[in-house]
TTC37 protein (Rissa tridactyla), 669 residues
Amino acid sequence: MSNKEVKAALKSARDAIRNKEYKEALKHCKAVLKQEKNNYNAWVFIGLAAAELEQPDQAKGAYKKAIELEPNQLLAWQGLANLYEKPNQTDVRGDLADVYQKLLQLYESGDKQKWYDVCNKLVELYHQEKKYLEVAETWQKLIQMKQEEGAEKAELHQLWKKMIQLLKDSTQNQDNKAEQSLLTAFEHAVNSADTVPGEDHQNLYKDFIQCLSKFPHETARLEKACHDMMALYPTVSYPLEVLCLHFVQSGTLSEEALDCFSRLLEMDASSGPGIIGFGIKCLQEKKYGEAVKSLTEGLQKTSECAAAWHYLAEAQMKIHKHRDAVLSCNQAFKALGTPEGPSLRWKNRILQLKAEALIKIADADAAEEAIQSLEQIVDASSDPVVLALRGRAYLNKGLMDQASKISQELLSSHSDLAESHALEGFIHYSQKNYEHAERSFLNAIERKDETAEYHQYLGLTYWFMSDETKKDKGKALTQFLKAAKLDTYLGRVFCYLGNYYRDIAGDKSRARGCYKKAFELDGTDEESGTAAVDLSVELGDMDTALSILNEVTEKASTGGAKWAWLHRGLYYLRTGQPSQAVADLQAALRADPKDSNCWESLGEAYLSRGSYSTALKSFRKASELNPELVYSIYKAAAVEQILGKYENAIATYQQILKKTEDYVPALKG
């Protein structure tokens, strides 16, 4: 076959392909290859025809042979790309990317439009494979080409925006280079926008700031972006809100942070981050009640801020709402997500605070949960304060040996630490070794004089100590007063101050004030509530007594606050209001149906109201529960007498006289 015949055969092959006669084309090509086995065009045409005949392996082999012969010729590379792009070609993405890369090289110095087309295809391929770094590098090359060509600012702006779209999911892959490319794209996009200020530009800035806030290490860039956006859009609250939350999460509250909180609240009084910021400011200023109120309100609007939940728990601890603090710590964990970097620091702080709250709750279940929380703290074993908390949790759980072991370890390794001595004090106090407890608490106070709890427990130690201190409770009083001064929310201290003024000093008025304060701080403290009511009655101040009882009964759930219902029922009974007395005494019995005295009082109330049958049932119930209640048995007989049941009444009177011969009311009956 001469050179002329080879050309003719190749032309025939080309025509056959054009006419979709692929088998015919293959025949012509094979004839050429018999003569010239390294004929580039023949191999390319074989690749084309085989691809159309659904013979991918033969096509691929032919193209590769052609490429081997002429690596810098376009045709074979284009053919291979077309083959790999076919839908039935799977598992060739890596090969296709290599082919696109080669085509980019070949087009670079020639057909720019084709270069851009291939570049777009390559980027799309990388994007499907989630190869974000390759996406970034390839797209940046495209932008660079456009810049070199002198592209318009508007076109470049759209390209940077497209790059943002391509890379926006890269944040989940934690690829630092891809992240940096995304942020660079944002910076170029916000700086190349045409209409500034404008709605599109504003939304773009928001997206940029939102993206920055996902990267804990980009704080300087975040602050700058927020300030820049605030300068362009002074009436938009978004950048200020992000900045406020950023300051909250950072855990350090500078003047700048406090200024941001104030500015945000001026702009939007209902802004969640602004209200949270105000709550933290209140916490710093020791306005704990206000802090709890504001943080709770702010978190209803912005619930995803773990640091804010931690601050709320901290404020709740300050006012001794320990169960609430545990719930807030649980919310903080939910908001925390995956703890790493700065989040890990918050995780440890939340776990420790939760453990402290559970230890203050002081029951065995809470102690077990506290131990579990402390076990999750990273590097807990090297922190003596965490170790002391663990000791207290063991003590609350009744595991005295483990608590003592930790106490001994701490005293030998950290004798300078107040918590080491306090733990020893709590252990001695729980074992009623009051003299040892006194020494331990004095040592703790010497190292940390500002801790109210240490003064409280030293006061309790003196209160229960020995006969001498029982007569002279002056030492206990001094410590209770110190504790109350250091922590005005410590309800139990005010209760003991009430005990001192009532039982030792005989000052009923001052005692009543202390009990009232204790009860205001802790509405579940029945001892203080009861004492405040009793002393108010003794002092002739029924208004105060009733206001306390009304407040408690209004809030009480069914079967709760028995003492308050009972006290108010007896008050109504004494003051001739039997119907109200019946209602209150019934509520008290719902809380404790086996209280014989309460049944007796209910009988009196029914009797005063003229409800004789129900009065009789109540007196009988009281004597059933407690056969020693002679008065109830007598009243039952008296009611039977009123109802004309004389035989029953006589039998009951005789029953009383058998037990108590000189019981005058029964003799009269």
User: Anything to note?
Assistant: The chain has a mean pLDDT of 89. The chain has 38 helices and no strands. The radius of gyration is 43 Å. Residues 518 and 667 are 48 Å apart (CA to CA).
